[in-house]
Amino acid sequence: MALVSGFFIVPEVGAGTEDDPQRPKYVDDSRVVKWYGGEAISHATGDYHAVRVFVDDADDVALDQLEQQSDAFRIYPAAVENALNATNMLPVDISARDWALMFSKFLTE
User: Fold this and answer.
1) Are 55 and 3 in contact (CB under 8 A)?
2) Which whole-number Å values give the CA distances from 87 to 81, 102, 104, in the listed order?
3) pLDDT tens digits along 52-84
4) Which residue range(s) make up the domain with 41?
5) Are 80 and 69 in the same domain?
6) pTM of this structure
7) Through-space distance between the first and last CA atoms of the chain, rounded to whole angstroms
8) Three-state DSSP class for 49?
9) Its domain of life (predicted)?
């Protein structure tokens, strides 16, 4: 089985109990084979998760359907990379991974 994936920002759901743990919304969908996420991002409107969602490539329409949800936001790494490189903050273009590493160093200091 081959997998395809997409990156999303989704709200947190769950009461935080053993029966209803806090988790990113939509990852319980039966079409989601696996997902990776991190710590919730707090905002005045609630908590959100950045997640990478994997589905079977035969069911890749599930990613498009997730993108159509009013509270799910799809992130395209190449678009973020292009936007950051367009700021001309650095004398050369760098990859999305390098941007992430640079920001993580700044933000964890």
Assistant:
1) yes
2) 10, 15, 18
3) 999 999 999 999 999 999 999 999 988 989 999
4) 1-75
5) no
6) 0.81
7) 41
8) strand
9) Archaea
